[in-house]
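Internal tracking record. Fields below are filled automatically when a chain is submitted to the structure queue. Please do not edit lines marked as system-generated. If the sequence contains nonstandard residues, flag them in the REMARKS field before resubmitting.
Queue: standard
Priority: normal
Entity type: single polypeptide chain
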Amino acid sequence: MNQQYTLLHKYGNLITAFVVLVILLAIIIATSAGFSYFDVSLLASGGTTLALAALGGTLVILSGGFDLSVGAIISLVNVVLAAGYIDDSTPAAFAVSFALALLIGAVCGLVNGALVAYARIQPIVVTLSTMFIIQGITLLIMNSPGGTVPTSLGTYLMGDVLPERLPASLFLIILSLLVWAWIKRTPFGLHLYAIGGNPEAARAVGIPLGRSYLLTYTLAGAFYGLAGFFLSAQTGAGDPLVGNSLLLSVFAAIVIGGTRLGGGKGGPVGSVLGAFVLMLIVNILLLFNISAYYSTIAQGVVLIVAVMIGGLGKDAELRKFLRLLGHRWQAMRNGRLASQRGHQPKYIDVSGNSPGLPDSRISFLKKHQKDLRISLPALAGLAILLVATQFLLGRSVYEWSYWNAMLVLSTFLIILALGQGVVVFTGGLDLSIPWTIALSGILFTGLTQGSNEALLYALPVILLVGILIGLSNGVMVAVLGISPIVATLASNGILQGIALLYSGGTPSAFPSPSISWLMTARVAGITPVIVLLILFVIGSVILLNKTRFGRHIYATGSNLNAAYLSGVPTRRVLILVYILSSVCAAVTGILLTGFSGQASLGMGDDYLLPSIAVIVIGGGLITGGRGHYLGILAGALLLTTLQILLAGSGLPYAVRPILFGIVLLGAVAMLRERAR
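SYSTEM-GENERATED OUTPUT FOLLOWS
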């Protein structure tokens, strides 16, 4: 009995994924007119790309990391194979393409691993930065779909290894799993689980963490390259954005397969099963004539549900929350709540200032000495870029017209920086910003239809939508205990599906004239939005530095448990910061429609990396607990100035994400020791 319990505990998630796969397959067979070997081959090839990508991502998750560059690497491999087209169907062309795909993936993974292992930068920051850098390189190689991959790829990979017995796609997955079975039995395989379970304990027993991280990311990159290789065989052409949609699916497959986020438990076998589960779900949607726009919604929901099921242990955050509610209810019934016991200070004053002692007052410079010091790099960088703009572009930075244009362009980042900033200060990250912006813009133009009168109800509706998005993100993080990255990534996919369904894939409405006037008109030489922007900055500084809520944000990010034990309502704080982040993104979506004159799909994609970069450049600590809004403001102005400089230099648009990624990595590396 104990042995059965041990096996069930160890392989329960894997068994569950297999059972779900069988059920979904049975549904497809039952609703199909027939089910032949051709159908088996078609389903196998349909899930192979995702399975190979999830296999690589699982290695990173097992080590305790998180890799956001998977889709970008797949796209890079695809365009390289398509751009260097060889009109050849021989085995030699196949072998060269195969080696090139593995090499590209492994090199990208090697860079990720080196930055994580030896530069000691957080995996999420490294892979987010390299994701944008690789996307920029991909666009430099091929800025639109085109090209042709070697015909040998389709010949060998879309066929059979054993005619009418074994599809080549299924054979490739089996071969990859055999490689994993060998890796698992090597010292590196043992080290992988050890460092994922407890990296400090692994270091203490002599496991080489740096080398293990380096090898992990390199192998993961090789599997991404293999996924790009197979995808190229499927499509037969190049597309610089082909891998972008895989990011959500990869993490959903990994979680469905039972790999624990945080490392130390799970394996690629479950991730492969999870990949085919997702593929079958999409096929069932198509089988019942349900719009393909629902696919990202389904994947996001499945990811959230899978994480919740995997976290239903005795120490699950939801159980803790329910126990707390029970204790509070009992205390309230007995009249023992602090609010029921007379007028007593609810929180301890830890500011160090005694109200009756004038000598305890601290000067502004001394009080904010640390914040000013960490903001100096952003201010220095801004000054250098202004000088470069003056001399390289011949623009007079002394004239108000330049500053007016620069402030208008920086409006979106400055607003987003507050929302993303408070999330980062609590130790989280909001990846739902892109489609919160896009959905808000699409809904806003759809409601107003170019009318000023519609603003009376359109603005409150969009703000309410932002509040609801942030509330759902905050509840997932604070109450359900889902990782902020996973929660907001799943939310981003769900919002994408909602935006596509609402717009039908082609937004066509226009914003109200008042919003366009706010963003483009001139009153006494000043664009009206600048006045509101100044008020926004003043309010943001007061919120973060002069209110109890602001102090709670920093306390929660510095040490969540210590803050909770000190009386800080940490769950409430987390929920509120995600609401603030989504509201800022919703406001940004509204203003973007006024600036550009319309809403568009993907209009928020360009703001994810910059919204994080301005925080790091401004001296904020990506792991939480440190940062000042004025430093973030300097970072936003710096990135906007850099954007203006790049636009005026005539360099391709693809250079922008490359430089932004490099700037983010440089800022994190420069402030690394101070952060530690």
